[in-house]
Amino acid sequence: MNIRSSFEALDKQFTAYGGLIGGGITRLLYSDEWQQAVHALKETLESAGFDATFDDIGNLTGRLEGSKYPDEKIVSGSHIDTVVEGGHLDGQYGILAAVTAMKALKEEHGQPLRSLEVLALAEEEGSRFPFAFWGSKNYFNLVDKSEVEEIADAEGVRFEDAMRDSGFDYRKQDQNHDDIKAFVEVHIEQGKVLETENKAIGVVNGIVGQKRYTVTLKGEANHAGTTPMGLRKDAVVGFSEIASKLTQRAREIGDPLVLTFGRVDPVPNTVNVAPGEIVFSIDTRHIDPDALNQFADEITETIKSVSESEGLEYDIDLWMDEAPVLMDKGLVDR
């Protein structure tokens, strides 16, 4: 088995599920492209000799039973969803690398001593709905349906409608994965550290904490030509000041704090009206929980003070709040 050519063939196949003409890929949770990918992956696993099964919400597991320690498993995989116009290797690489490696090990050595499992998590990104880690949180029984029952995507499609239309539903009973001996995820570098240092591989010591917000500012929509600057309550002006102040503050604090305004939607979004409303996202991350929480306080205070000075109403929805997690030292040191 040629591992490189085998992986490249799989990567080419799965990049087509959501692949874009100009490059990149969009494969959002429970979308048609997502459904095509997960069902194709199930067929791929089964044809390679894996026992492939979906759980209730759409996580897919491919299992090679262990001959000596079947009740102990080593798991490898990643998430099968993507961000909008994302790179084709984000998430997909971890899944297909696991498939390729486990298939090669089986062909060369036969049945494994411990059970091996490929795990394709249904969702991680939070790109379609304002909820992230739906896959892993269900895998470890860390989410309740009440957290997603009322949410919808940007087109107004309700979460549970999209899920059920895809043939899946809420978790009917808790899962037990106490038999996991190790979980390893192969992932592309999404920054430039390894590339800059000309290193082929690195080992992650920890996963940063992350907070995501949806912020709404409301003022007054006014005519662009007849409303004096001093009489405006321009929501975009408020956003611009908030973004500028927080970006400057993040630069002062320095690495490893990061801050991103990834989505900005003014209303109305037209050339000749001063916007009366704007909805925008904030994503901030840090490995130190205290530093992250302290910056979160600064985010809230900045939004509040700028809104008051510009005569705007504001709403802050902190819809994702994940603490940092250190990786297992025993595995890292290996």
UniProtKB/TrEMBL annotation:
One function term, GO molecular function aspect: hydrolase activity, acting on carbon-nitrogen (but not peptide) bonds, in linear amidines
InterPro entries according to UniProt: Amidase_Cbmase, Bact_exopeptidase_dim_dom, Peptidase_M20
Keyword Lipid biosynthesis: no
CDD domains per the UniProt record, alphabetical: M20_bAS
Swiss-Prot/TrEMBL keywords: Hydrolase
Organism superkingdom: Bacteria
Family: Belongs to the peptidase M20 family.
Protein name: Allantoate amidohydrolase
Organism: Staphylococcus nepalensis
Taxonomy of the source species: Bacteria, Bacillati, Bacillota, Bacilli, Bacillales
